[in-house]
Specification:
five-stranded parallel sheet, binds zinc ion, Ribosomal Protein S5, domain 2, alpha/beta, four-stranded mixed sheet, Rossmann fold, elongated, binds magnesium ion, binds adenosine-5'-diphosphate, 514 residues, 2 domains
Length: 514
């Protein structure tokens, strides 16, 4: 007999309903149609074993499975469960009564246990949109799906439980998550706080400006100076996630299978710090079954690239486009997917190959040409993506042992939020612009007007430091943010003067300096 079950296919960060038609009739053989990939084909083997270990049998008939719509790729092993259920129902071993009401997804282990799947959150959203009463998923994925309101989410441990549910043999409780409660209770609950960082007032100031204007930062300093420690604390001074941002970030992690068991919602801004040996696919996303990369896992948060010159040049090059577009498109011959990738880039590097150039106590052993070659590893266009360069000098030991608490992240964040409010108003008519770092040349002319004194100051700096026209624009953007932090409508000369300090690593400057 012909029955239907329903599953869901994830594309990018959204999902689409898949109808699985199963017919068993007289004859032998198993036929899958509707563009299923090899993993879906293999699932027939798993289903066969899982059924028999649970006391069921594949019908000794001709089974035809059609997965529709046919023009959509169906990848992976997450269709095991709806296929197995469809086969049993078509053989009249279980009642088809509830099959129209529930979307079903899950991977089967050979003993019939259900393994976690990727993309449960977008699938649940899809189930709701398609008007299903509920969704049946592996237990590990139930909480992420349960953030969708108005949908019954059942987390199951094994095939037998799903059969019992569909046969209405036992009472099952849907998993409930109170989205608002989950969100507001855990919001801004960061473990790492700026109050742990002793001294480094100038670096903290630079990072506050960066957070306020959404500027990318390059930190340069010897090993042990606290670069990693500082970068890790960056998410804690960014404005709190909105519920919408939290959901979008959770979706990406759900699709990547990185959410973790029993997690319902990500409420903290992500901090991702991939090692410098990372491949370009792992960084920006890709693969034959496209998966989000680190830049998308960092969406709405921070991507930290430590030891920047150690990254392969090809890897850094692929970063440039998504840094501009805030989204990455992965194209395959038959389809393409998009993942959001709006993150703040923080990079760190040593000042020279030995690491101790300019160190207060240790001696640098590098020659000037070695230092120049090292710094040149970072291409001009990439360097150009950083509005703020900041040197990190190690804090002397006596200051490290000082017991006084530094300012908390919460306090810094309040100033950041106030500065962002001004920017929201400023860019109200520009839907794609949210903060100063995103201004292009035209908006810089419009919103970063400066008086004669500032003009002279800037011109002198350009000559002295041999700054490029681009560096000039970056100084204007950063001064706009500094003025916003002071709630100053105009950019004043002292804002410009401070912003100039954050260009200390421009190529032209390096030459003079080192
Ligand atoms: N300003 C500081 N305040 C408190 N601890 C610090 C500070 N600077 C460095 N440290 C300590 O030194 C350790 C090493 O710092 P780290 O951030 O790894 O340096 P880097 O990344 O520059 O090599 C930190 O984990 C922290 O314990
Ligand atoms: Mg480090
Ligand atoms: Zn050195």
């Amino acid at each position: 007999m012909l029955v239907r079950t329903y599953g869901s296919a994830v594309y990018g960060i959204n999902a689409q309903k898949i109808t699985i038609e199963v017919d068993s009739s007289r004859g032998v053989g198993f036929y899958l149609v509707g563009l299923p990939d090899s993993a879906v084909r293999e699932s027939f083997q798993r289903i066969d074993v899982a059924l028999s270990t649970n006391g069921y049998k594949l019908p000794g008939k001709k089974i035809v499975v059609n997965m529709a719509p046919a023009d959509i790729r169906k990848e992976g092993s997450a269709y095991d469960l709806p296929l197995a259920i469809g086969i049993l129902a078509s053989d009249e071993r279980i009642s088809p009564q509830l099959l129209e009401d529930y979307m079903i997804m899950g991977e089967l282990a050979l003993d019939g246990q259900l393994r976690p799947i990727r993309g449960a959150l977008p699938m649940a959203i899809n189930a709701k949109e398609e008007g299903f009463r509920g969704i049946i998923l592996p237990s590990a994925n139930a909480r992420e799906a349960a953030v969708v309101k108005g949908l019954e989410v059942y987390g199951m441990d094994n095939l037998q439980q799903v059969i019992d549910f569909l046969e209405q043999r036992a009472d099952f409780e849907p998993v409930r998550v109170d989205l608002e409660k989950e969100f507001f209770q855990n919001l801004d609950n960061y473990e790492a706080d700026f109050s742990d960082v002793k001294g480094q007032e100038n670096v903290k100031r630079a990072l506050e400006i960066a957070a306020a204007g959404g500027h990318n930062v390059l930190m340069i300093g010897p090993p042990g100076s606290g670069k990693t420690m500082l970068a890790k604390r960056m998410p804690s001074i960014l404005p709190p996630l909105t519920l919408e941002e939290a959901l979008e970030t959770t979706k990406i992690h759900s699709v990547a299978g990185r959410l973790g068991t029993n997690v319902s919602l990500l409420t903290r801004r992500p901090f991702r710090s991939p090692h410098h040996t990372i491949s370009d696919v792992a960084l920006v996303g890709g693969g034959s079954y496209p998966q989000p990369g680190e830049i998308s896992l960092a969406h709405n948060g921070v991507l930290f690239l430590d030891e920047l010159p150690e990254f392969k040049r090809s890897v850094l090059e692929v970063l440039r486009q998504p840094l501009e577009d805030r989204v990455i498109t992965i194209s395959r011959s038959k389809f393409s997917v998009e993942y959001p990738a709006s993150f703040m880039l923080i990079a760190a590097m040593n000042p020279c190959p030995c690491g101790y150039y300019n160190h207060p106590e240790k001696e640098c052993v590098c020659t000037p040409s070695q230092i120049r070659r090292y710094l040149n590893k970072i291409s001009g266009p990439l360097l150009d993506r950083f509005d703020i360069h900041i040197e990190v000098i190690p804090v002397p030991f006596k200051d490290l042992s000082d017991n006084r608490q530094s300012e908390s992240s919460r306090k810094i964040r309040q100033r950041v939020i106030a500065a962002r409010k001004i920017q929201q108003k400023r860019f109200a008519q520009y839907p794609s612009i949210h903060y100063n770092a995103q201004m292009g040349a035209k908006l810089i002319r419009k919103f970063c007007k400066i008086d004669d004194t500032s003009q002279q100051l800037l011109r002198a700096a350009v000559e002295r430091l041999q700054l490029s026209a681009r560096a000039y624009d970056r100084i204007l953007k950063v001064s706009r943010t500094i003025a916003d932090l002071e709630q100053s409508p105009d950019i004043e000369p002292h804002h410009i003067a401070e912003a100039i300090q954050y260009r200390s690593l421009d190529k032209e400057t390096w030459g003079n300096k080192y």
